[in-house]
């Protein structure tokens, strides 16, 4: 049999006891950010001392938390458990609130190490084009760049309008770094892109990198926001009609790490010779 299923069968009462109790889960997550007093746990959970104390005793008996002079804190094994619970809560939240987006799009070019932490994007919103606003995603992209102090992007497509928006940001003095595929790189050496590039290519605040393979991701990361677009599963093309947006610091950090992941395997773009 599966050893994990075997382990679950042996410990199912303990496992179910944690996830069946709202209060136990809340106490563990609350203590994940550090030691808390009983009054702080009351405020965080919205529960009374009479409700909290039996759960604390249960967690102490399992060696997940321990008492201190000031209140309670996680033990080493409690810290490990809490991180996994927090990760599970985030993933379920992400899946539940943005289920259609993740189900209908291709995520194969999001590396496994980033999918493992996909819960960092749990507080996201999906922006869709609508019949009343067929350019809603595009206008949000413009707004995102207009408000940015720096821009890092991964682009699996390019259009003259996108190139002009990027040019505008560079000329405003914004630090812009862009990763494109080799296919897009070749396209950018043709008109009208070449003329646009020649006005900004030598600026210190602009860098283009070329990734040697196709990437089914469109991502923009700024100091304020992460914007993520993906290819549709069926048919297989970049979905211009929907973007995932998240302004949480942890989501922005996730996006910056993904950018660096692809940049580390890319090389500098050169406009006058083959990449």
The gist of it:
With 275 residues, this protein is α+β, with helices and mostly antiparallel strands. It folds into 2 domains: 3-90, Winged helix-like DNA-binding domain superfamily/Winged helix DNA-binding domain (Arc Repressor Mutant, subunit A), CATH 1.10.10.10; 99-268, Endonuclease Chain A (Endonuclease, Chain A), CATH 3.30.870.
The overall strand count is 11
SS strand fraction: 15-25%
At the third CATH level, what is the topology name of the largest domain? Endonuclease, Chain A
Mean pLDDT: 93
Question: Could you describe the largest sheet, including whether it forms a barrel?
Answer: 9 strands, mixed
Number of helices: 12
Low-pLDDT stretches: none
Overall morphology: elongated
Q: State the share of residues found in helices, binned by percent.
A: 40-55%
Protein name: Methanogenesis regulatory protein FilR1 middle domain-containing protein
Domain Methanogenesis regulatory protein FilR1 middle: 136-264
InterPro entries: ArsR-like_HTH, FilR1_middle_dom, Tscrpt_reg_HTH_AF0396-typ3, WH-like_DNA-bd_sf, WH_DNA-bd_sf
Pfam families: FilR1_middle
Q: Overview of this structure, please?
A:
This protein has 275 residues and is α+β, with helices and mostly antiparallel strands. The protein folds into two domains: 88 residues, Arc Repressor Mutant, subunit A (Orthogonal Bundle); 170 residues, Endonuclease Chain A (Endonuclease, Chain A). It is 48% helix and 19% strand. The protein has twelve helices and eleven strands. The strands form two sheets. Strands 3, 4, 5, 6, 7, 8, 9, 10 and 11 form a nine-stranded mixed sheet that branches. Strands 1-2 form a two-stranded antiparallel sheet. A hairpin with a 3-residue loop joins strand 8 and strand 9. Helix 2 crosses helix 5. The chain starts with a helix and ends in a 7-residue tail after the last strand. The model has no long low-confidence stretch (mean pLDDT 93). It comes from Methanolacinia petrolearia (strain DSM 11571 / OCM 486 / SEBR 4847) (Methanoplanus petrolearius). This is Methanogenesis regulatory protein FilR1 middle domain-containing protein.
């Amino acid at each position: 049999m599966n050893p994990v299923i075997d382990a679950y069968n042996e410990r199912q009462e303990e496992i179910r006891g944690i996830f069946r109790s709202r209060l136990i889960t809340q106490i563990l997550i609350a203590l994940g950010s550090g030691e808390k007093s009983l009054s702080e746990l009351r405020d965080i959970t919205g529960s009374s001392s009479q409700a909290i104390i039996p759960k604390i005793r249960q967690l102490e008996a399992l060696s997940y938390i321990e008492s201190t002079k000031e209140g309670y804190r996680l033990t080493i094994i409690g810290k490990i458990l809490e991180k996994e619970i927090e990760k599970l809560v985030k993933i379920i939240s992400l899946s539940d609130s943005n289920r259609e987006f993740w189900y209908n799009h291709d995520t194969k070019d999001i590396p496994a190490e980033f999918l493992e932490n996909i819960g960092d994007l749990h507080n996201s919103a999906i922006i869709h084009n609508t019949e009343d606003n067929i350019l809603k995603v595009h206008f949000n992209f413009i707004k995102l760049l207009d408000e940015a102090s720096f821009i890092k992007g991964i682009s699996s497509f390019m259009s003259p309008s996108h190139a002009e928006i990027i040019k505008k940001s560079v000329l405003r003095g914004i630090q812009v770094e862009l990763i494109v595929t080799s296919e897009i790189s070749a396209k950018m050496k043709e008109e009208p892109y070449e003329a646009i590039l020649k006005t900004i290519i030598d600026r210190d605040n602009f860098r283009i990198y070329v990734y040697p393979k196709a990437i089914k991701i469109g991502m923009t990361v700024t100091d304020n926001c992460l914007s993520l677009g993906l290819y549709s599963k069926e048919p297989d093309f970049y979905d211009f009609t929907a973007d995932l947006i998240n302004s949480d610091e942890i989501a922005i950090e996730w996006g910056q790490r993904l950018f660096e992941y692809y940049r580390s395997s890319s090389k500098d773009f050169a406009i006058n010779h083959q990449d």
